[in-house]
Fold:
Amino acid sequence: MKRRRASAFWTALGVLVLALLGISTSLVLANQAGPTAVENTSIADVSTGQGGQQLYAAPIAASEPLTVYFPQTSQRYFEWFTYQDDFEETNTGWPYGSGDYDYGYKTDGDGSGVYHFRMDTEDDIAFVTGLGTAAGDFDYRADIRLATFEQPNYWYDEYGILISPRALDPLNPMVDGAYTFHIKLKLGSGNVSSWSIAKWAAASKGTRTIIKEQEELIKITDEPKIWNTLLIKRIGNQLSFWVTRQGAGDLVPVWSLTDSSVPYFVYIGFYGAHSLDDNGTYRIEFQYDNVGATSFR
Structure:
């Protein structure tokens, strides 16, 4: 009887071990088979990144793009993401402080949270990026406005958005390779303000190349406290630049160019520059809000 019971025990134990091995093998094979199909999702194509490395976009619900506030730019694969900031919170990773000018978060007089530069010295120039990045094909947009009324006449003050191959410290910005898309304020009441596109070699106006500059009456405004919206879009190696003003309707494209030197990942941020009027000194403030960057693949 003892031998029969022992034999039955070892037989049952062997069946259990084989069953467990089968489950483990099934799991391994399932993992090797790749992701399973997900209903009602939009799955980006497998594409090739820098160095010929494949990039895979995980499935994301078509009606709800993934929103992240701290993109993992160190990863070599790509996830579809959207970066957003309305500056209602003051701890979202943008620099703040004082140097030659004031920069950082602010609650404006109308109660809205904004990012701002406040300048009062001739040739003050500001470049800043936060935690936000864009990658591959992307749209980057932000609202920008002049926020001060006291200047007697403008002297080509400038403010806008930028993309940069590296993060920018406002106290020591290394801007070589950065693009700005900005508004250049009119010289005086008899002139017209312009939109302008520039590529920079260093943090000095003398080192930049003006790609295109155009006077514009309809789609931008230089009126204080009225918003302009600027957008930079990349598809492949092509950058296009879009603009509109508060109350003027949809964004419209104003220029495009091709540049294969722009890296796959770019940092997004703001630009501002101050000049003095020949009638005396004045302080000037630029404000930025509703930042958004959506990367498609």
Notes: The first strand starts at residue 41 and ends at 42. Residues 1-9, 17-79 have pLDDT under 50 and may be disordered.
